């Protein structure tokens, strides 16, 4: 789920904020929240706090989050990096979506944060007509459907 919080943080009528919160209820189902922040905004901490307040109000504040500090291209002498907690877990990624610098670090951080959440699933695919579609059960027990395409070497 992606939710853009830029417009709701300040100066919105109460009924619009309430409607926005209602749409965010799905957030409680998330495995990991990506909290994208404008690192060049002088109100960085205020913006973070505003989002965290809403997350608490919809009872989603216990969901793990990865802070994505965007727009580092607008900061002087700032390099992309991953900040980590005491257990070496990625907690913050500094990048520029505009230039792409640091985006691979985001993928790295996501891989690390979600590696314990992803279970391998296997399906036996036949070579008949070089394509097959088979149902199978994933490691979590969910029924999945795979469309496997094979190409001749």
TrEMBL record:
InterPro entries: G_HFLX_dom, GTP-bd, GTPase_HflX, P-loop_NTPase
Any single GO CC term annotated in Swiss-Prot or TrEMBL for this entry: cytoplasm
GO molecular function, one term: GTP binding
PROSITE patterns: G_HFLX (PS51705)
Source superkingdom: Bacteria
Start and end residues of each Hflx-type G domain: 1-118
Pfam families tied to this protein: MMR_HSR1 (PF01926)
Name under which the protein is recorded: GTP-binding protein HflX
Gene that encodes it: hflX_2
